[in-house]
Amino acid sequence: MKFLCAIVLLVVAIAFAAAGDLEDELNWQSYKAKFHKRHRSKDEARRKANFIKRQKQIEKHNKENKEWEMGNNLFSDMTDEERKGMLGAKPVPRKERFLNPGYPIEERALPISIDYRSDKCMQPVKQQAECGSCWSFAAVVPLEFNTCKKTGTPVALSEQMLVDCDTYNYACEGGDYTNAWKFIKEKGGIMINSSYPYVSGTTLTRGTCKFSSTSVAARVSTYGWTMPYPNATVSMQYLQSYGPLPSAMKVLDSLYQYKNGVYSDSACIIADENQVDHAVVIVGYGTTTTTPAIPYWIVRNSWGTTWGNLGYMAIKRGVNMCNIESWTAYVEVV
Asked: Domain of life of the organism in this record (predicted)?
């Protein structure tokens, strides 16, 4: 009798294992189709294993956390090394920040919320691909936005020009958005994207600089860090006065699979403000209608529209989550 029970249990276990394997395979095939993933046969098993591991993390998180949701995206089958290759914030040391501080701004009543995502001057979310050029995308967004506000005409500017030409930064190896503004100011402007399109996601290297003053579409006037920092209210005031604010943040493993909701991670409350590795842009703020209400920043990323909420995320505001309130900066155009 005991032997028979053991046989039955073994059969049931095999059936469940087979069902699990089938479900994993169906999920894997669905993921590849949705995100247009094609792998060499020798890489298929490794990529699938990465995906299955992340799928289990997503399911566990979404069962336990109701403030924000994880989901599959372009990172789901990547190695840790590949994911880290899309980080590239290398901001200037703290002591150097005081050489170019922000100007005092007029204190006035702040609106309950700001959201620049749907503004006609905000360009569509872009994709830096497998290149640590997030700094260039963070530098370009406020230039596009503020130039449009001045001229009334939307404009897309060239991140590739910065990757190829900017001698203050390090192309796909990382950089600082304020150094990018310094370079643009000295160079005489930044070119329009149609004259210098982005290709670094495929080349992974700094190319030959093809700068042409005839295609310049924006020029830098002044720039600086928001002061004092970290201070959420100060950043909100600058956001209202100067438009989108680039910042740098620390990326934990949990962020790669972010999908929706107000992101927070207790491990991302960091004592050392210099622990940052990715450049993003704050484009708004608000507060949830939940109980308790959660204040948040609206953040634009450069990982394409399949990441997060169509390329954007909400992150908890007022606690310097992932150091995002320590590195906000602003820029004005000529």
From this structure: Eukaryota
Q: Give tens-digit pLDDT for 214-225.
A: 999 999 999 999
Q: Is 134 a catalytic residue?
A: yes
At residue 108, the pLDDT reads 72
Per annotation, catalytic residue among 50, 72, 301, 323: 301
How far is it, in rounded angstroms, from Cα 325 to Cα 208? Answer: 35
CB 222 within 8 A of CB 200: no
CB 244 within 8 A of CB 300: yes
Length of the chain: 334
Question: Three-state DSSP class for 205?
Answer: coil
Quote the CA–CA distance of 49 and 77 in Å, as a whole number. Answer: 8
Segment 242-294, tens digit of pLDDT: 999 999 999 999 999 999 999 999 999 999 999 999 999 999 999 999 999 99
- Catalytic residue, candidates 134, 148, 172, 268: 134
- The alpha-carbon radius of gyration of the chain (Å, integer) is 22
Cβ within 8 Å of residue 273, ≥6 positions away: 94, 230, 323, 326, 327
Confidence of residue 21 (pLDDT cuts 50, 70, 90): confident
